[in-house]
Design goal:
The complex is a heterodimer of chains A (121) and B (498). With 121 residues, chain A is α/β, with parallel strands linked by helices. Chain A is 43% helix and 21% strand. Chain A has a 5-stranded parallel β-sheet, sandwiched between helices. Chain B is α/β, with parallel strands linked by helices and 498 residues long. Chain B has helices at 14-26, 37-46, 63-73, 88-94, 110-143, 162-168, 172-175, 180-184, 187-201, 250-295, 303-335, 347-353, 355-361, 382-398, 457-467, 492-497; strands at 6-10, 30-34, 51-55, 78-83, 100-105, 147-152, 157-160, 210-216, 222-233, 239-248, 343-345, 366-370, 378-380, 405-413, 416-423, 472-477, 481-489. In chain B, strands 2-1-3-4-5 form a 5-stranded parallel β-sheet, sandwiched between helices. Chain B is elongated. Classes of the chains: A alpha/beta (121), B alpha/beta (498). Chains A and B meet through helix 1 and helix 5 of A and helix 10 and helix 11 of B.
Chain lengths: 121, 498
């Protein structure tokens, strides 16, 4: 069962992603901030990370950089979640290991199909 | 075109006077004759003569006295005295006075006299031409929209134009000859400018082509001037002074300041937009996400799950509504069109109207409400004051830890009711206390570790209390908590009852 790590500070959005991906047959772990997310990533070695860019303290970009710097984790694909799609620097995101993005607001279908797309099912 | 030269001949010898008139007219001078002093003075009141040819011995008043009175009437007139040997001494006395250019002894030598007159005319014409040139030059200076000042090597003003007089609020004669630096520069810049000026005069530095400094005006005010300078040199190339053109940029500076303020505000507004965008998309993501979750046919959700998702949608919709209301209120307050529906209310009723909302907000905190029973009625818009209370309590929950106490108190103070919302949270750093009511300003919360909301809540509170004629303020100690208080006007009816 593929393991997905969600790093997201908004409780309702954590829940939204968790219930849908769980129902689609994934094992989901949730972190409420970047620091916790990195710890869980090292511990659990997920198959995919869903990462909110706009978070307090450690931003999504910082998390991306930390994942890239970690030999064990740099190959883990990341789907970023952002509210400011127009300002998103896609090249930078790709360079830093992102394989796709979800723009807020997104539907359950968009979420599930992008995950399936990345995990190849 | 050259004007005709005006000559007055004063002689009681009618024939001689008439002869003189003929000869002078033939020379091209306009000539008028008087046979006594009184007539001469009467004529002088009507016409500005250039030259008066005066016999020293006249029937009514003496020529000497006539000259005195005549030159009073016509400050520009010049006189040639005609005299016989008998009065020579008197005549010699008069010569050397400013207006008397020569004397001729009778009988008159016409050639000599004419040569003398030509000489006077020639000189006066040259002087007039020079004067006109100077007037023209002054006009050029005066037409300039900038202030022009020439300062000589002794720091004295040698020239100023009309605009310069206007800016300084002084007359030309009050400026020319004065020490420029002592009289017209504020003390705080004086030494520095003098030092630069002296170096410039010594040829040690090139003139700074552009600089800005203030000048002192008559009223003691300061006007900000942008200067352009050039050095003045004599024929040998020695530096003898400096010519400065100055433009009043007080207004420009004000505009600049306004623009900076505007930019600040704009930056805050841009922040607001990006905050609003984020604040809108977060609840919208809940609404869209959970609605589409429920709509998916691939998954069957339990009743409890369905209810849970619907609650998340409802919460998202509530958050959106509050956000939109805040934005509308803010724009109403900015436009000054916030309408109040005021009436007399007891404080307890206002609190009661928002009690559910307060209870919901403080479900993770301990809320304590202390309202004495004997408070007078307040004359307010109940809904708006309820909104202020909700905003302040919500603010308190954001900035204090779960389980900590939030207290609402009301008391009577100097015929106003003061309501306070006190938390035991993180408090506000002293340097930020002034800013918390600013539009769009957001303090980062340590408790939640982020900036939440739009930064509008407290400025809306401020606007609503202002609209009621009240006051809102904050006291805070970092690490101990914050206390927001506002005053409400007591109802006049309430006072009568009391």
């Amino acid at each position: 069962m593929p393991k997905i790590l969600i790093i997201e500070d908004e409780r309702n959005i954590q829940k939204l992603v968790r219930v849908n991906l769980t129902a689609s047959g994934y094992k989901v772990i949730v972190a409420a901030n970047g620091e916790e997310g990195l710890k869980l990533a090292q511990l659990e070695c997920p198959d995919l990370v869903i990462l909110d860019l706009m978070m307090p303290d450690m931003s999504g970009w910082d998390v991306l950089a930390a994942l890239q710097a970690d030999q064990k984790l740099q190959k883990v694909p990341v789907v970023i979640v952002t509210a400011a799609v127009r300002e998103l620097d896609e090249d930078k995101a790709r360079r830093m290991g992102a394989v796709g993005y979800l723009a807020k607001p997104f539907s359950a279908d968009e979420l599930i199909s992008s995950v399936k797309h990345v995990l190849g099912r | 075109m050259e004007r005709k030269f005006e000559i007055l001949v004063v002689d009681d010898d009618v024939e001689l006077a008439s002869n003189l008139q003929d000869i002078l007219e033939a020379e091209g001078y306009h000539t008028v004759v008087a046979h006594d002093s009184q007539t001469a003075l009467t004529l002088s009141r009507e016409k500005a003569f250039d030259l008066a040819l005066i016999d020293i011995k006249l029937p009514d008043i003496s020529g000497v006295e006539l000259i005195r009175r005549l030159t009073k009437l016509l400050p520009g007139v010049e006189c040639i005295i005609a005299t016989g040997y008998a009065s020579l001494e008197t005549a010699v006395e008069v010569v050397g006075q400013r207006h008397v250019v020569a004397y001729e002894i009778k009988p008159l030598n016409m050639d000599r006299l004419l040569a003398l007159i030509r000489q006077v005319v020639g000189r006066r014409q040259a002087e007039e031409a020079l004067h006109q040139e100077r007037n023209k030059a002054q006009k050029y200076l005066d037409v300039a929209g900038v202030m022009l000042v020439a300062i000589d090597a002794n720091q004295k003003v040698s020239l100023i134009n009309k605009k310069g007089c206007e800016i300084l609020g002084c007359k030309e004669e009050e400026i020319v000859g004065q020490n420029w630096f002592d009289k017209f520069l504020p003390e705080r810049v004086r030494d520095e400018v003098i030092a630069a000026f002296e170096k410039l005069m010594a040829g040690e530095i090139e003139p700074v082509e552009y600089f800005e400094n203030p000048v002192l005006t008559r009223t003691g005010g300061e006007t900000f001037i942008a200067w352009h300078n050039t050095v003045l040199t004599d024929a040998a190339g020695n530096i003898v002074g400096v010519l400065c053109s100055g433009e009043d940029i007080t207004e420009r500076q004000l505009l600049w300041k306004k623009m900076v303020e505007y930019r600040e505000l704009n930056k805050l507004k841009t922040n607001l937009l990006s905050n609003v965008s984020h604040e809108l998309r977060t609840p919208l993501t809940s609404i869209k996400g959970f609605a589409t979750t429920l709509l998916r046919e691939e998954t069957k959700w339990s009743k409890a799950e369905q209810r849970d998702f619907l609650q998340a949608i409802d919460q998202g919709a509530g958050r959106l509504t509050r956000l939109i209301n805040d934005l509308l209120d803010m724009s109403r307050l900015e436009a000054g069109v916030l309408e109040l529906e005021r009436d007399d209310y007891p404080i307890s009723e206002i609190l009661g109207s928002v009690s559910d909302e307060l209870a919901n907000l403080t479900r993770n905190h301990k809320l304590e409400v202390i309202v004495p029973a004997e408070l007078p009625l307040v004359f307010v818009d109940e809904v708006r004051i309820g909104q202020v209370l909700v905003n302040l309590v919500e603010n308190a929950t954001k900035h204090s830890w779960t389980g900590s106490q939030i207290t609402i108190t009301a008391r009577l103070d100097d015929n106003q009711v003061v309501i306070s919302v006190t938390d035991r949270g993180e408090g506000i750093p002293t340097e930020l206390l002034d800013r918390v009511f600013d539009r769009f300003y957001q303090a980062e919360s340590i408790v939640s570790g982020r900036k939440t909301g739009t930064g509008l809540g407290l400025s809306i509170c401020w606007g609503i209390i202002q609209a009621h004629g009240g006051r809102i303020w904050v006291e805070s100690r970092p690490g101990e908590g914050s206390n927001f208080s506002f005053t409400l006007p007591v109802s006049t009816r309430g006072r009568e009852i009391a």
